[in-house]
Every structure is written in C-alpha cells, then in structure tokens.
Design goal:
Helices cover 59% and strands 0% of the residues. It is an all-alpha fold. The chain has two domains: 71 residues, no CATH class; 46 residues. The longest helix has 38 residues. The model has no long low-confidence stretch (mean pLDDT 81).
Length: 119
C-alpha cells in the first residue's frame, strides 16, 4: 500500500526550487509593517536564488515560462501513487459508510426490542 504524505518536499514532488523558511508570528508582523526581519531577509535571498535558477533553466531550455505553463508538473510515478492512494481512500470510505449503515440498522433493531418505559 502506498502511504501518501501531505508533507512531501519540493524535491519529492519534482520541483526544482529551494523552499523558503517559516517566518513566524513576530517576523510576519514586522514584514507586514514594512520592516525587515532576519527571516524575511533569508526568504528574500532564497526567492532571489529561485528566480536566478528559473532564469538559468529557461535559458538552458530555450523556452519561456509563461503564466499558462504549468511550473510544477508532478512526475508520472507520483501522480500514479497519488491516484492509487485516492482510490484506496475512496474504497475505505465506502466500506466505512457501509459499516456505519449496518451499525445504525443494528442499533434501530435493538431499540425496537427494548420495552419502552413510561413514567
């Protein structure tokens, strides 16, 4: 069974990009006010390197990256594994739904067997 993780990194997803770091609450506040933070500076450097990497890649391939061009295509293996995982989730959901219906039916039958007490 394929185990799907929501926490796949860029490399695992086939994305040629360096991830930025989490700003955090305080740095985010500073950045929103227009003040620079150490973490914000680190992210700006990372974004600069990513832009340079994209430009190098674009010039190497001789292709322009446009807004309509998908930039982060998943590789076939990841797409296949994701599809398998989603199908498995669907099957599990259907099985759980059937089990729930059976339990509800069983509960209703038991309730009918219990004599009603009136006060």
């Amino acid at each position: 069974m394929y185990k799907f993780s929501q926490n796949l990194g860029y490399k695992d997803r086939g994305i040629d990009k360096e991830p930025t770091i989490h700003l955090g609450h305080e740095a985010s506040k500073l950045e929103k006010k227009g003040k620079r933070s150490k973490r914000g500076d680190i992210n700006r450097e990372i974004e600069k390197r990513n832009a340079e990497r994209a430009e190098r890649k674009k010039s190497e391939q001789g292709q322009e990256i446009t807004e309509n061009t998908p930039k982060n295509k998943p590789d076939n293996e990841l797409a296949k594994n994701t599809a398998e995982y989603l199908n498995e989730l669907k099957e599990n959901y259907v099985a759980l739904e059937k089990a729930l219906i059976e339990l509800i039916d069983e509960r209703n039958e038991i309730r009918q067997e219990i004599p009603r007490l009136t006060y």
